[in-house]
């Protein structure tokens, strides 16, 4: 028996927290999406009633199958439709008998093709669903990832819920966000891929996530909108309540053409989107990588409005480049105050007048262990608004000695973060090691300590360029607030 309570309130609760799901087109064939959607419900531990529907099978994946939706022995909150377009209207006609609330229409090759017959079929499906009072997610979409409910549309998604909600027109980009975000320590409250937006679209979803108590940050990918005026209103309300990080897909000529064949959306001009995002306070990301970087900051850091950065770690050349990039991103690197210098004089009397901001760790030599005092001094100083700790991934020492150094630097960064005296971010290059490279102890160590930083909720970047670029948008957001 199901132990999931029937949801109440917003209609989309029937999609994100349904008490029962029917997979129409369920299959034992691993090349079929009817196989995968059913497999995901099993693998992610969905606790409600699952009804596989397949007219040609008595069982599917060791579960009792039903010949039609009408044969299912109970009400169904959510239908996942994996059948061809010519069977969708018949399916919709069966939905009232099972009190269906929402249909996730995975079915594609409709309006996005631009073909007259397909466009006409999409309109017929839309009209019939409206007549029957059934809400549609899709068509041409991957649907729902709701880790708390045990629903997913891809393999390897975390079953742990987080506080990032995602509204994505593209299923592929939504999958990349989840997978790449997980590697950076992010977790999600709910994610939806909504495709052609025949019925439930970007505005409905933004309104939902703006009110969802489990979502504190909204990530979004838009290709186009159906109702521009309503969209701007929904986007403004969402951005007023929570940080919204958005990607606009299809801004160049080739991209605009690709949009119409992907989700049948109206792309609009790049300038209009720029103006809209700025007016309502959306943080714009250029791609999934930048979106993940920004999400890390919003996920783990408190608001930062100041632009004075204290930077430490790595060698002299790294410090020079880092200072240039930080200043180019609009930050300042204040010189070390007399207070810090006087304390350094006691700690390292041979070096105190040589050190600056950034702090070059390569000059510490045999006194390297005393470099651990620098993060403490920086975190206690009122001269800095936030700190960047660059882990010494380029250290030329023997591996056993280098591991001790990287361990110390990572522990220092984590301690600063836990104390909460200053917001801190870390830079630890992942480079691009191949599979065989992980036999090398250095790459394994870097991977291990990246995980330690992220487990401690320290935003960790591959490069100083990515770090200061994301921080500049993060600081600008909080200044506008």
3D structure, described in words:
The chain has 481 residues and is α/β, with parallel strands linked by helices. It folds into 3 domains: 13-137, Rossmann fold; 160-300, Rossmann fold, CATH 3.40.50; 309-480, Rossmann fold. It is built from 16 helices and 17 strands. The strands form 4 sheets. The protein has a 6-stranded mixed sheet with strand order 8-10-9-11-12-13, with helices on both faces. The protein has a 5-stranded parallel sheet with strand order 2-1-5-6-7, with helices on both faces. Strands 14-15-16-17 form a 4-stranded parallel sheet, sandwiched between helices. Helix 6 (202-211) packs parallel to helix 7 (228-241) and helix 10 (288-300) packs across helix 16. The model is unreliable at 1-8 and 252-267 (pLDDT under 50).
Q: What's this model, at a glance?
A:
The chain has 481 residues and is an alpha/beta fold. 41% of the residues lie in helices and 15% in strands. The protein has 16 helices and 17 strands.
Please identify, by name, the CATH architecture of the largest domain.
3-Layer(aba) Sandwich
Mean pLDDT: 89
**Can you summarize the main beta sheet?**
6 strands, mixed
Count the domains.
3
User: What portion of residues belong to β-strands?
Assistant: 5-15%
**CATH-assigned fold name of the largest domain:** Rossmann fold
Helical content (DSSP H or I, runs of 4+)? 40-55%
CATH-wise, what's the superfamily of the largest domain?
Succinyl-CoA synthetase domains
Q: Rg, please? A: 26 Å
Label the structural class: alpha/beta
- Head-to-tail CA distance between termini: 48 Å
Count helical runs.
Answer: 16
Global morphology: elongated
The order of strands across the largest sheet is 8-10-9-11-12-13
Which CATH class of the largest domain is shown? Alpha Beta
């Amino acid at each position: 028996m199901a132990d999931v309570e029937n949801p109440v309130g917003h209609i989309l609760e029937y999609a994100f927290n349904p008490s029962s799901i029917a997979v129409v087109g369920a299959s034992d064939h691993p090349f079929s999406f009817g196989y995968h959607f059913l497999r995901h419900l099993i693998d992610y531990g969905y606790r409600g009633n699952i009804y596989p529907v397949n007219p040609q099978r008595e069982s599917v994946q060791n579960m009792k199958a039903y010949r039609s939706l009408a044969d299912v022995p109970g009400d169904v909150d959510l239908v996942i439709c994996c059948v061809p377009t010519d069977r969708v209207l018949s399916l919709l006609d069966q939905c009232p008998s099972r009190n269906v609330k929402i249909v996730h229409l995975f079915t594609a090759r409709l309006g996005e093709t631009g073909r007259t017959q397909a466009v006409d079929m999409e309109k017929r499906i839309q009209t019939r669903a409206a007549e029957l009072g059934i809400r549609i997610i899709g068509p041409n979409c991957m649907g729902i990832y709701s880790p708390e409910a045990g629903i997913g549309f891809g393999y390897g998604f975390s079953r742990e819920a987080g506080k990032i909600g995602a509204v994505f027109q593209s299923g592929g980009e939504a999958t990349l966000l989840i997978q790449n975000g997980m590697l950076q320590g992010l977790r999600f409250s709910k994610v939806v891929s909504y495709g052609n937006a025949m019925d439930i679209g970007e505005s409905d979803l933004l309104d939902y996530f703006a009110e969802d108590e489990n979502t504190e940050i909204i990530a979004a990918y838009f290709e186009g909108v159906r109702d521009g005026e309503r969209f701007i209103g929904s986007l403004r309300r969402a951005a007023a309540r929570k940080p919204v990080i958005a990607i606009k897909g299809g801004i160049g000529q080739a991209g605009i053409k690709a949009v119409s064949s992907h989700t049948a959306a109206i792309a609009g001009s790049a300038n209009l989107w720029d103006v809209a995002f700025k007016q309502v306070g959306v943080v714009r990301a250029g791609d999934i990588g930048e979106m993940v970087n920004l999400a890390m900051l919003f996920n783990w850091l408190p608001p930062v409005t100041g632009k004075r950065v204290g930077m430490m770690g790595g060698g002299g050349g790294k410090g020079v480049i880092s200072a240039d990039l930080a200043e180019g991103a609009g930050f300042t690197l204040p010189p070390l105050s007399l207070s810090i210098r006087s304390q350094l004089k006691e700690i390292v009397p041979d070096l105190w007048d040589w050190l600056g901001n950034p702090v070059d760790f390569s000059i510490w030599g045999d006194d390297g262990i005393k470099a651990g005092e620098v993060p403490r001094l920086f975190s206690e100083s009122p001269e800095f608004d936030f700190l960047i700790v660059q882990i010494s991934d380029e250290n030329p020492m023997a591996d056993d000695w280098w591991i001790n150094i990287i361990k110390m630097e990572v522990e220092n960064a984590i301690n600063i973060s836990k104390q909460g005296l200053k917001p801190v971010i870390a830079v630890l290059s992942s480079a691009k090691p191949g599979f065989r490279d992980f036999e090398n102890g250095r790459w394994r160590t870097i991977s291990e300590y990246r995980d330690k930083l992220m487990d401690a909720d320290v935003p960790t970047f591959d490069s100083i360029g990515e770090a200061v670029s994301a921080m500049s948008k993060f600081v600008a957001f909080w200044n506008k607030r």
